[in-house]
């Protein structure tokens, strides 16, 4: 019965968002349109409280926020109002606490209203992972880098993760790469040594290709697990720029033949 309720709720939310988006014309920029949405921390765990931040470009005052959770879905409505006496103020912003969440993938439907009228809507997805067990945190990661430093949408970049284990015998059993919005998550699952091993620090290097087809700012999250427990993590920002995508660089060829 609970699954039926969640599925029905999902259908109702999806229909509501589709209806809202269908009456918000891209060519018509309304006051109170959403400018940015983000969750803090960027990589939440089961031990951290999740905070949603929403901003608009207009100088508006926050009236109220309505939050409706439906399983792993959150329907969030942010209501703005004109500043009192028409006085100028900073761009509107608000923070919404989603609390401490269980492990899983969560999806947010966010709608912005100004003076009772729908100004815009957007969606955001994020993952919540298990928190590290006290006493299991290790300084395993040494460096996380991407080549080229600023990849384009028309090329494949190479992500390199390097680190060290205190002894030999550690083995990489599973590696996963996921893209959700502007977040890339790389999870490396290692197994502890079995039997006698060299008692010397042992370096490791993991490489994986990344192709990001939409320009923008991304965050790459690397998480290292040992026997199922999170032991180390690191995140780096990456800016992806627009590529050529099969269009001949005529300007470059013209300059080359003029020499």
Please describe what this structure looks like:
By secondary structure, this protein is mainly β. The protein has two domains: 2-128; 141-240. Helices cover 12% and strands 51% of the residues. A four-stranded mixed β-sheet has the order 3-4-6-7, covered by helices on one side.
Characteristic key phrases:
259 residues; 51% strand; 12% helix; disordered C terminus; mainly beta; 4-stranded mixed beta sheet
Compact summary:
Helices cover 12% and strands 51% of the residues. It is mainly beta and 259 residues long. It folds into two domains: 127 residues; 100 residues.
Which oligomeric state applies? single chain
Low-confidence stretches: 18-27, 246-259
Number of domains: 2
Widest sheet, order of strands: 3-4-6-7
Order of helices and strands: HEEEEEEEEEEEEEEH
Largest sheet: 4 strands, mixed
Question: Given the C-alpha coordinates, what overall shape results?
Answer: elongated
Number of helices: 2
**Could you report the average pLDDT, rounded to the nearest whole number?**
83
Q: Structural class, from secondary structure content?
A: mainly beta
Strand segment tally: 14
Strand content: over 45%
Percent helix range: 10-25%
């Amino acid at each position: 019965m609970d699954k039926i309720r969640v599925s029905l709720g999902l259908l109702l939310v999806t229909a509501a968002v589709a209806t809202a988006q269908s009456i918000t014309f891209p060519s018509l920029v309304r006051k109170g349109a959403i400018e940015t949405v983000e969750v803090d921390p960027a990589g939440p765990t089961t031990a951290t409280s999740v905070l949603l931040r929403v901003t608009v470009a207009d100088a508006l005052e926050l009236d109220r926020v309505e939050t409706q959770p439906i399983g792993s879905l959150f329907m969030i409505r942010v209501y703005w109002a004109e500043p009192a006496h028409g006085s100028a103020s900073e761009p509107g912003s608000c923070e919404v606490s989603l609390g401490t969440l269980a492990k899983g993938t969560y999806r947010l439907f966010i709608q912005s209203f100004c003076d009772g009228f729908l100004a815009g809507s957007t969606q955001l997805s994020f993952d919540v992972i298990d928190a590290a067990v006290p006493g299991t945190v290790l300084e395993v990661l040494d460096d996380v880098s991407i080549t080229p430093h600023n990849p384009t949408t028309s090329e494949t970049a190479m992500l390199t993760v390097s680190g060290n284990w205190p002894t030999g015998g550690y083995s990489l059993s599973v590696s996963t790469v996921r893209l959700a919005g502007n977040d890339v998550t790389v999870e490396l699952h290692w197994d502890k040594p079995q039997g006698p091993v060299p008692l010397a620090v042992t370096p490791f290097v993991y490489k994986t290709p990344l192709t990001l087809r939409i320009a923008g700012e991304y965050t790459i999250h690397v998480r290292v697990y040992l026997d199922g427990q999170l032991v180390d993590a690191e995140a780096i920002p990456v800016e992806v720029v627009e590529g050529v995508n099969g269009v001949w660089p005529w300007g470059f060829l013209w300059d080359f033949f003029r020499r």
